[in-house]
Amino acid sequence: MGNKKHSSHIIKSLAILSMVRWYNILVLGLSLYLSAFLVFASNKDILINLADYKIHLNILSMLIIIMGGYIVNSFYDLEKDFINKPKEIIFSTVISKDSGLKMYFYLSLLGIAISLACSRKILIFNIVYAFLLWLYSHKLRKKVFMGELGASLLTIIPFISLMIYYRVFDLSILIFMFYFSSIIFTREIIKKLISFRGDLALGDQSIPIAFGIRKTKLFVTFSMTVSCLIVSCLYPVTLDKLMLLFCSFCILTIVYGYFLVKNARFPKEYKRANLLYKVLIALSMLGLLFLTPFH
Predict the structure, then answer these.
(1) Which among 52, 167, 172 has a CA at the least distance from the CA of 118?
(2) Do 140 and 146 meet the contact criterion of CB atoms below 8 Å apart?
(3) 2 and 58 in one domain?
(4) Which of 68, 96, 122, 196 has the fewest C-beta atoms under 10 angstroms from its C-beta?
(5) What is the number of domains present in the chain?
(6) Residues 66 and 132 in one domain
(7) Average pLDDT by stretches of 10, the chain with 295 residues
């Protein structure tokens, strides 16, 4: 009896980790810390940065709020995932919807409460961020273009929070944020191509359903082109060899992604392009370290 209860706790713990997208949270947290210490506050001693408890609380509060957003999104996607990826939603069925919504509420509240120990500006910023995540989950995510655009903007908001915290506003960082938004936007459209059957069955609106597969691929091509143009603007701004290599890598990856999407016909083929973009997004977060803003 005790072993069964212990196993149940382990399964539920694994389910929660899966629902909060622990890998995404880990990569985002690492990127925020590296960006904070090596980009936004690079003119300060590392020990001074580490001793600044407010930046730790700021990053922690944002990550907790994002965890809550991931949990509520997993429940809204449950019916669709039963159709699109039935083998990948085992953990989502372990936690009841009521328990999931409670976790979402408590995590959002906890994230906002931690912000109280930082500053009034951070508190207000995170309250607005939590509200925007709620708005995205409940309203925007099922609207054509708004869902994809909302997801791309919400991803870069934590980095904007760091810009505000350190009062660093730089052209190279601004260009990078536009580039980062564009690749996330592209991936969101690719994800809609993967979930086409599920969206169609449930009556959800998406770009492929509203405009068709052929025109959606044209949207993807346009978005990829914009990404290449934006990231290519980073090199003349920073004039750094590492940034040149980074820009070249991003452009080559995007071009490869274009051919994957162009030749794709089935969900598993679109998933390859989606995986490629997941890697590109993770590496692009680390690419922020190549920037050298002026303080």
Answers:
(1) 52
(2) yes
(3) yes
(4) 96
(5) 2
(6) yes
(7) 57 69 85 84 78 91 91 67 52 65 90 89 91 84 80 87 83 86 93 81 77 92 95 80 87 96 90 94 80 53
